[in-house]
Amino acid sequence: MISDKIISPLQSVNPGGAEKVDWDPSAKTAFVITGEYTDDKGGQVVAVDYSNGYDQGVVVAEYYLEGDVSDVRVSSKGLVAASVFDRDTREGKVEFFNYEAGELISRGSVDVGFQPDQLSFTKNGRKLVTADEGEPLDFYGSDESGQNPPGSISIIDINNKKPSKSAVDILYFTKNNSYYQNNGVRMYGPEKEGNNNFARIDLEPEYVGITGNKTALVALQENNALAEVNLKKGKITGVFGLGYKDWSGIPFDTTDRDDGYNPTVKEGVTSARMPDGIDTFKIQLGGKKQILFISPNEGDGRVRPDDVNFEAEADGVYSYGTNSTGAEIDSFVDPLSLTETIYVYDQAGIGSEGDFEAEEGDEFFITKKYGVSSDDEFWSDEVRAGKLEDFGDVSNYDSQIIAEGRLKTLADQNDPVTGSLVGFGGRGFSIHNNEGEVVYDSGNLTEEIAAELGYYPDGRSDDKGTEPETVEYFSFGKKKNKRHYIAVALERCYNNGDEDELGTIVPIFEVVDINAADNDDRVKHVATLQSPESLSPEGLLFVNDTKTSGHMFVTNEVSRTLDTYAISQADLG
Questions:
Q1: Contacts of 365 (CB under 8 A, 6+ apart)
Q2: How far apart are CA 569 and CA 573, in angstroms?
Q3: Residues pairing with 568 in the sheet
Q4: What's the pTM?
């Protein structure tokens, strides 16, 4: 059942960008990262003061970092940490700060693995764990070497007196391929053949969940897997796949060309869960207290270069080259050489490298060496249903999906013999035990909620639907009266009735009986956070004020806003 309870924000602040957030209770200050370069100076850590109330947040300090900033966390000791990486090489580090008298004061940095995407402190603040994603670079799949830095997990033993002297242990995935594949881990890429240690460069840590001080669970999104890390021993103790969501009997929409939300039941379709911002919590399950993790099943593919540097403004023949005549309509640094400049002309025969045809709105990735390319020229693990005929017989696949021709599927997972199609992401969230077994799955509930509220993103029906980006666990009450809640950020949703297509929704669910025999009786929808002027929720953080009340922070990537909401147990029924 879908709840009609709507909770509106107390305030929406624009700190210049808003991707992730954490909170210092002693300073009553939220710390937000802006993400990619801001004003060409670098990414930022921004301090927002709420000492006058959660409806009166004010930006009081900012600090620019050289690179893309991906996350920020505050330890129980008050130490602020931000992960940052070089946008070209992906080399990563963690920058430390103290917040004093309204200023962010640098305490130095330590090097970690490539492209730290997210970080988490242990409860006691003695260790910091980073998920070093090590995503492939733009020319992955081309003839260029060194395009796939290794993914890793960094464990930092915090030196609170001198944070820049903190010891760092970087853990890599060093077992041979068969170990991971036997455990259900997805591995796929142009370097796999003949490489028995492919996992070292293929596995991509995305997000860290820590309950207490001893164990970290790390989502490996593109690999549809989870890693378990013993923080005391500093070892990866296991990596296991998260399985595939079976859509049998569950209606969902698989085309963006049907003018709305029109879910139907399909045959032979599963989805790789591929979680992003996981969270963990403890609860009684099967007669004993267990640590469970919540998986927001967003889905993510690998497409390279996944970038464009020229868009045609009109139909016609264009030319490009490294020669400038003064009549060029666009110019940019060659993304491969990083030294030469590419010039584009709206006439044939002028550019020294040649001509190309384009229609208005066509997008290209242009280099001197590889010429005029598409954004998936070098590598893609996606194949639309309409292109499956290029790979052979499609008669065993679901006839509606083939007729629509729109669903994006995993190129390495489809099976034309059995008719099994595999999509990206579970279009919802699931709860798992520490061995990866599914304890609960939301089915199509997040899609139904979005549609009921007029926020369903039909333009994403062919892809990953509502795209649950991250989850936040929180609770009210103690011991036997403790009640468990999960907030789920739906990244792609927007108000279908708004001409600017703004609007953020974050449904809240209560874990009512995790031991119930029926999956649908274990969790229920109790309320939805709704912000009409924001868009694309990226980060969630709940702060308890009392045993029965607190406040939720929501960062919104596209609108660059930070929203605050007051939530009480009475609001949630």
A1: 138, 305, 307, 308, 309, 310, 335, 373, 374, 375, 377
A2: 7
A3: 549
A4: 0.96
